[in-house]
Design brief:
Helices cover 44% and strands 12% of the residues. It is an alpha/beta fold and 677 residues long. It starts with a helix and ends in a 25-residue tail after the last strand.
Length: 677
């Protein structure tokens, strides 16, 4: 807008200047030709340094149109003009003295355009830097915002699942409200509080709750707001921030993502001249230097406390570090209740059950889960959110939206069914394995199907048998493919990645191998390069070879153990897989019923996927031809031509013949095999 106004002004000035200029310009020869031929009716001669500026009128031109020309200031020019005028016998020549322009006028007319351009440039740059109040040079001004909105204040009651963390911050609020209580006991309130924890655990929310409860000025700024493109801006903004805080003391300063400015010094490419280091040095001085900052409490949040400068973490600056972790099952239930306040829930919704099924979820994850459930219910024009909406939302958060319209071949569908059934059987057989909560062959995201494996309870530590059982469970899908079809697919690449990671940690970090209670490797790399790019190998090549052998041994033993379990439970593996082909999704109750009773429980499955509409127990009859039946079974499983039947009594099949040949061709059941009788 301002640029447009500036261009309009320039255009008006240009038009005005153009109107003052003559319309016709001619050369010296043309002027003499018109003068001697009598076409010039009048002319004015005005000396200008070494030339004459001659203006006048010609015959046949309008009165408003003049001509202009310049001739040398010489006797020849004057005599030629006078001779031509005398021949015409007309008094057409008028001589005027040169115009005298004031020096001030000349100065201002020459400098004003540059001043306007200069002011406009700084005005636009000021707007780009986010400055306000019409200030031009405000690069060094702090960008901290004063939090003072009574309508949007967050209270401690709005923060759930972090009772101990809240108690630590309640003391800060009490000090600001009643400092005598602490002063009488000689206590010194911490000058700084550092909130550390994974993303989404509520660090910023806790700071906002402190702002809502304290009733004192609350300055909020991000660590990335200090450093800009100009040298010295970061340190200047730190000084300005604390100057404003001193004027409003007692007050609180909250610095979010402080790792952006508080990283360890000496790690950057610029050395001591790094602008970020200058900003950090000024922050250290302001927090605990010669000048006191009484009544100013600093709260900072980060999820990378390991990269912060040690001088920033020492007592006197950040005296107290509060770890804000992911909530436990009780905390998750409280978080769900807080976020469900403004959402209509059906009476069947059990938030406790949802909390038990979401281990490892942060507060942000749980809020997103409820929001997704509300969106799912809104798509179906529901008035309330029920458990089916929460189940769908949980699947969407974990694995992405369902892709029910994806075209999947019969071969891939069978592979996915037996793959997920393998994970399921391992989870049911092993005592230390994770509990199977849900298994489905409906594609979601990049996965063709998935099994939701949840721990039995929230754990902070895991034993060696539990880790080994977890590896066995991860290998269940690949082993199931091998046992059933005699060949394997690429669907287990993520399972292998996770299993190898666990085995490597057992050997290199936890001391759970034949190498003994030793830790190998140092992953503390340079803070600017990332910790995975500079992994220090503090062991010899011979030890590295032994580490590889131990990892291979752990994976190999788990693979053989998994294969033995699935071979012994082959009937149940086939039952779960073929039921998945029929109903696509099984929950925990159905899985338990299939494993222990050989049938699905008595209930209506219409709401499950629309495939089953009977209240009776599901009966799946698989009648195959002899050659198709033999090809489907394990290469070691030679059961004869009898039909495989799954009824209310369970799976009826002859025993496995251990001595069967292993050269049968690979095949898959027909579509009719998977229909309900």
């Amino acid at each position: 807008f301002y640029l447009l106004i500036f261009l309009v002004i320039i255009g008006i000035v240009s038009i005005f200047n153009n109107n003052n200029e003559p319309n016709v310009k001619m050369t010296q020869d043309e002027f003499y030709k018109h003068l001697e031929s009598g076409d010039v009716t009048s002319l004015t001669m005005q000396p200008e340094s070494s030339v004459f500026e001659i203006t006048g009128k010609l015959k046949g031109y309008d009165d408003n149109k003049n001509f202009v020309t310049y001739v040398p200031f010489s006797e020849y020019s004057q005599s030629r003009i006078n001779d031509a005028a005398n021949k015409l016998d007309k008094d057409i020549i008028n001589v005027e003295p040169p115009e005298k322009t004031s020096g001030w006028v000349t100065f201002f007319t020459s400098i004003i355009p540059f001043v306007i351009i200069f002011i406009l440039f700084f005005f636009l740059l000021n707007q780009a830097q986010g400055g306000g109040g019409g200030r031009v040079m405000n690069f060094g001004k702090s960008k901290a915002k004063l939090y003072n909105d009574d309508k949007k204040k967050v209270r401690f009651n709005d923060v759930a699942g972090a009772d101990e963390e809240k108690q630590e911050l309640v003391e800060v609020v009490e000090f600001l409200k009643d400092p005598r209580k602490f002063a009488e006991l000689g206590a010194r309130i911490p000058k700084g509080v550092l909130l550390v924890g994974p993303p989404g655990t509520g660090k910023t929310l806790l700071a906002r709750a402190v702002a809502g409860e304290a009733g004192t000025p609350f300055f909020s700024i991000s660590g990335s707001d200090f450093v800009e493109m100009f040298v010295g801006v970061g340190a200047s903004r730190v000084r300005d921030l604390f100057e404003n805080a001193k004027k409003n003391a007692p007050c609180i300063i909250f610095i979010d993502e402080i790792d952006a400015v508080g990283r360890q010094r000496g790690a950057g490419l610029g050395g001591g001249h790094d602008e970020r280091e200058q900003t950090l040095n000024q922050l250290l001085v302001e927090m605990d230097g010669f000048g006191g900052n009484e009544g100013i409490i600093i709260i900072a949040a980060t999820n990378r406390a390991d990269v912060l400068d040690p001088a920033l973490l020492r007592p006197g600056r950040f005296d107290r570090q509060i770890t804000v972790g992911r909530p436990d099952v009780k905390g998750r239930e409280e978080v769900l209740k807080v976020h469900a306040r403004n959402k209509p829930l059906a009476e069947t919704v059990d938030l406790k059950a949802i909390a038990q099924r979401t281990p490892g979820f942060s507060g942000a994850d749980l809020e997103n889960l409820l929001n997704e459930a509300a969106l799912v219910a809104a798509r179906q024009d529901k008035k309330k959110i029920d458990m089916s909406d929460l189940d769908e939302a949980s699947d969407r958060v974990i694995a992405g939206p369902a892709k029910k319209n994806r075209v999947i071949s019969k071969k891939e569908r069978n592979i996915v069914a037996w793959h997920e059934a393998g994970h399921t059987i391992i989870g049911l057989v092993l005592d230390d394995a994770e509990v199977v909560h849900k298994v489905t062959i409906v594609p979601r995201g990049q996965a063709g199907g998935y099994a939701v494996m949840l721990p039995k309870e929230d754990r902070f530590f895991m034993t060696e048998p539990e880790l080994k059982d977890k590896i066995v469970g991860l290998l269940g899908g690949r082993v199931s493919e091998e046992v059933t079809f005699g060949e394997v697919s690429t669907g287990a690449h993520n399972d292998f990645q996770r299993a190898t990671g666990i085995a490597r940690s057992m050997v290199m970090e936890y001391g759970m191998s034949k190498l003994g209670p030793l830790q190998f490797g140092n992953s503390q790399g340079q803070v600017f390069l990332g910790r995975d790019f500079n992994n220090d190998q503090n062991y010899s090549d011979a030890i590295a070879y032994e580490i590889d052998l131990e990892i291979q041994r752990i994976i190999r033993e788990a693979y053989e153990r998994c294969k033995k379990i699935l071979t012994e439970n082959r009937e149940k593996l086939d039952l779960v897989a073929k039921t998945l082909l029929e109903v696509e999704t099984l929950d925990a109750e159905q899985i338990q019923s299939l494993f222990h009773n050989g049938k699905l429980p008595d209930r209506d499955y219409t709401a499950l996927n629309g495939n089953l509409t009977t209240d009776e127990n599901v009966k799946v009859n698989i009648n195959t031809k002899k050659e198709e039946k033999e090809a489907l079974l394990d290469p070691l499983d030679k059961r004869g031509p009898e039909d495989l039947e799954i009824t209310e009594e369970g799976l009826n099949t002859p025993p496995i013949n251990e001595g069967a040949p292993q050269d049968k061709p690979l095949s898959f059941p027909n579509e009719d095999d998977n229909k309900k009788s």
